[in-house]
Each structure stands twice: as structure tokens, then as C-alpha cells.
Amino acid sequence: MADAVLRQALDRAVDLARRGPARDPNPRVGCVLLAPDGSVVAEGAHRGAGTPHAETAALAAAGDAARGATAVVTLEPCTHHGRTPPCATALVEAGVSAVVYAVPDVTAAGGGAQVLAAGGVDVRREPHPGAEDLVADWARAACLGRPHVTWKIASTLDGRVAAADGTSRWITSPQARSAAHTLRSRVGAVLVGTGTAHADDPGLTARDDDGMLAPDQPLRVVVGTRDLPVGSQLAAAVAAVADAAAGRRPADHDADDPRPGEVVHLRTHDPAEVLADLRARGVHGVLLEGGPTLGGAFWRAGLVDELLVHLAPALLGAGPHAIPDLGIGTIADAARLELVEVTTLGPDLQLRLRPTTPAQED
Ligand SMILES: NC(=O)c1ccc[n+]([C@@H]2O[C@H](COP(=O)([O-])OP(=O)(O)OC[C@H]3O[C@@H](n4cnc5c(N)ncnc54)[C@H](OP(=O)(O)O)[C@@H]3O)[C@@H](O)[C@H]2O)c1
């Protein structure tokens, strides 16, 4: 089949996959079945855990027309016996003659392609950046066995995250804050400790430069044993959901408009427990927005995968430090990081860093 036809079918499969839920234990997948002349026989997309996989949905829609077809799929067909039968086996049994997939399944180690080839199906990979983007977070979380964690810090040049009186709005520029909102719209959950919930009354929504809600909103998660502050934005969001559920007041939004993410309050101090809870909710990526106490707890637990520092050309000379005591007493034990990327955000610097092994003596 012509490469242009396959590429067009892959583009379509990616569009179909995007309709699936971003926050789900399963990856988003789309599938297009093509007849030998290149015409579309059927399409399918995965709609979330417990529903049919994209390939099974397309096969069901195609019926007997699946025989001899080429299945174009965004992700290598699975071999798992879960709530739905393995897709690789279903494709073989339906009599498809070829499978073209864009991204290998990191959880299957080539198993899907092997089952297909053993069943006499012509299998090949056709890389597609859009398909890779769709499952990047899911694949990273699958390899880690938990959500990927980015700790984001907005700090002055002297490493302060707030002034001596507790005020921290705004340390960084509008450009840096705009970038932070974009980051929020790309993760499954945004996390703060109760200390930040009390000090800053954050909304933790993702907004555009006009203050409008972005289409994709993260779960808003507060960690700590204290109650949410009375009258705060996060407490009001919880109360509004409870009121709407009890019929005490109507939901005040159009069903098609973006809504702020659900607020989840986890009354624990255990970072691993937090990530296990979020994983069960289908979260693949977490933006940890502080404060220093919660960030430090994740760091000490070895659960920070990336540090994103928005460094403002400002000095405070006093106020809370970005990084709390990590129990490091001597220079040889300094926590070292690899500088992955430096960009400017207006007058601020954005440093992207990854933890490396502890420092070695020169
Ligand atoms: N510039 C920035 O990037 C930035 C970002 C966020 C915050 N801030 C600033 O940071 C300050 C707040 O700092 P913070 O450190 O108090 O905030 P925090 O880290 O958000 O919250 C600390 C609280 O989280 C709870 N907690 C959860 N897990 C914990 C653990 N493993 N160990 C200990 N406590 C745990 C505890 O409260 P419970 O008693 O309720 O359990 C603790 O008091 C404010 O001034 C705020 O403006 C700055």
C-alpha cells in the first residue's frame, strides 16, 4: 500500500485517539482499517479503561470486511489478557493481512508484533511524532511504575521562594507564569502541600493569557493533614461539587465549557502513597508546585524525576528557601543535577535539570 495512504491513515488514527481520555490508566490509541485499495473499512478509538481497545472497536465495526485489511494503529497492538482480550490475537483471528503501528508498546517488549508475525500477519513500524506525543507520558509512567514527577520552583537569584512576610506573588514575570500555566495543562495532576494552600490560596487551574480556562485541566491535589483553609479557592471548589451533587445549587457552567479539575485532598505525608493514589486515578505526569516542605519530602524519597527552576533576576535576602534541609552535611554529599536545558522566559531563566548520582570526589 502507498506510503502516503498509510501516513494519512495514521494521521486519522492519531485524531481518533485524541478523543480518548487523557487521564486514564490506559494509553490513548486509534485504529483505522484499510481495504487493499486503500479505502477506509472501519475506525476505532479507545475510550478509557474497561471499554474496548481501538483495534477491537474497529474490528467490531468492520465485521467480515476486516479479512484481508491493513490495520493502521497508533500503538503496537497489545498482548495483555485484561478486561478485554489481547488485540494482537484478535487481529490475527479477524484475518487482517497487515498491521502498521507507529509506537512500540514499552510494556510488551515487542510481544504484540511477534504474535502478529507468528499469526502470518505482515507487521511493520511507521514512526509518527503525533502518535509518540500521545503516549509519551503513559509510557514514561509505565516504565517508572508511577507518575513522572516534575518539581517546579519559582525562585529569586538567592534561592528564596517567598519574602520574609510570606508574600510570593509574583516572584517571576508574566512570561514565566504563562509558561507555568501551559505546563499545568499538560500534566494529569498539580500538587501542593497544605502550607502553600494556606499561604497563597492558589487556584491551580491552567489558564491562557486572557485568564480563560485551558481545555485540559489537571487534577488539583493538596497533600497534608490540615483542612483546606476556609473560604479558599480550593475549599470553595470542593464545596461547589458537594453542593451540586446534593442538588443544593445547580452547576454554574455550560457542559461544553472547560471546567477546573477536581480537587483531591490527600491527608498523608508519604510521597509514595500520593503517587500510588494518583496512578490509580490514571495520572501519568505530576507537576509538583511546592512548597519547599513537600518538594523536599519528594526529593528525599527519590521521587523527583525533573526539576524545573524559574529563576528571577531578583534578590530578597530573607524568606523561605526553595530547598529545605536535605540532611547533607558535607560537600562530597551534595545532590548533583544534570542541566538539560536553559531557556529564557522574558527576564527570567528556565532551568530544566535531572537528578544524577551523588557527587564524587575530584
Ligand atoms: N515560589 C514558589 O515556587 C513557591 C511554590 C509554593 C509555595 N511557595 C511558598 O512556600 C511557602 C509555604 O511553604 P511550605 O513548605 O509550608 O509549604 P508546603 O510544602 O506546600 O506545605 C507544607 C505542609 O505540607 C504538609 N506535608 C505534606 N507532606 C509532608 C511531608 N512529607 N513532610 C512534612 N510535611 C508534609 C504539612 O502540613 P500538615 O500539617 O497539614 O500535614 C506541611 O506543613 C509559602 O510562603 C509559599 O508562598 C513558593
TrEMBL record:
The active site is at 55 (proton donor). The lineage of its organism: Bacteria, Bacillati, Actinomycetota, Actinomycetes, Micrococcales. This is Riboflavin biosynthesis protein RibD. GO terms for molecular function: 5-amino-6-(5-phosphoribosylamino)uracil reductase activity; diaminohydroxyphosphoribosylaminopyrimidine deaminase activity; zinc ion binding. Converts 2,5-diamino-6-(ribosylamino)-4(3h)-pyrimidinone 5'-phosphate into 5-amino-6-(ribosylamino)-2,4(1h,3h)-pyrimidinedione 5'-phosphate. InterPro entries: APOBEC/CMP_deaminase_Zn-bd, CMP_dCMP_dom, Cytidine_deaminase-like, DHFR-like_dom_sf, Eubact_RibD, RibDG_C, Riboflavin_Biosynth_HTPR. The keyword Chloroplast does not apply. Substrate binds at residues 168, 184, 204, 207, 289. Pathway: Cofactor biosynthesis; riboflavin biosynthesis; 5-amino-6-(D-ribitylamino)uracil from GTP: step 2/4; Cofactor biosynthesis; riboflavin biosynthesis; 5-amino-6-(D-ribitylamino)uracil from GTP: step 3/4. Residues 4-124 form the CMP/dCMP-type deaminase domain. It comes from Serinicoccus chungangensis. Binds 1 zinc ion. Its cofactor is Zn(2+). One of its GO terms (biological process) is riboflavin biosynthetic process. It comes from the Bacteria.
